[in-house]
Amino acid sequence: MAADNMEGDSLEDEIQHRIEAGEDDEDAFISVLGKDQPGRLRCYGGGITKSSLKKDEAVRQVQVEYDKKVLSLQNQMHSMQGILKMVL
């Protein structure tokens, strides 16, 4: 476990050293860790792609809209229940 941490620290140090030497952030990262593999995103693990991230965001947006609509309908229902109690 400590060896993994030391290697992570040395990679960070190497990236930082390259940035301080005037290298662009992204270029320093690529020069230390290599280019991304096609269809994959670094630091997200296997199976995650740009398109899957976009799809997840679209699903979250639909969920938020759905939640707002449900809340609105619940408020309308409570309002109608109050009116019904007054009538009966």
UniProtKB/TrEMBL annotation:
Residues 1-13 have a biased composition (Acidic residues). Residues 1-22 are annotated as: Disordered. The lineage of its organism: Eukaryota, Viridiplantae, Streptophyta, Embryophyta, Tracheophyta. This is Uncharacterized protein.
